[in-house]
Amino acid sequence: MVVGLVAAISQSLRVLFICAVFSGIVCNIAYGYGEHIKTLQANFTQRTVSQESVLVYGGKLYIKAPSQVKWVYETPIQKEIYIETGKATIYEPALEQVSVGKTKIDFLEILHKAKRQQDGSYTTDFEGTRYVLIVDGDIPKKLTFTDEFDNVVEIALHNVRLNSALSDEIFVFVPPVGVDIIEQ
Hints:
alpha+beta; outer membrane lipoprotein receptor (LolB), chain A; 12-stranded mixed beta sheet; 2 helices; 12 strands; 21% helix; 47% strand; disordered N terminus; membrane; Outer-membrane lipoprotein carrier protein
């Protein structure tokens, strides 16, 4: 049981890192050259390819400048990740638990480091990993990178909507009654 919990927390932290970095790079598009972008809503597909398997996740992403992010994983498992100003909350209904902690991601560092390449993509290096963001005009389409376990991760965005009204309530997490809350 403890080993399973540790593995689940470790996986959650990896997912959180991916979400935080991606959100930070997307915000770079908003403030690197297009300050008119205030919100982003999209469906996403995340493919993680390892030597043993291919995992495909799907869900929704909400970003509101300058620092509110919500990822809703819908398939194959349900998970919600809330990130705001250095605080991260991960809700995993199947485990009946909420993990709350600080993000180690320095969004400003990521924002300042992402550089436009000749092919129109943006790249940034963070903690030894190179992230490549593909855009279509001002619209982010795909982020790819290789994680610390040599997994190739690709997050593709679909049905991207920019500057739509987003209520702050979308980014507020209220824990369901009876879930375990783990402070990290």
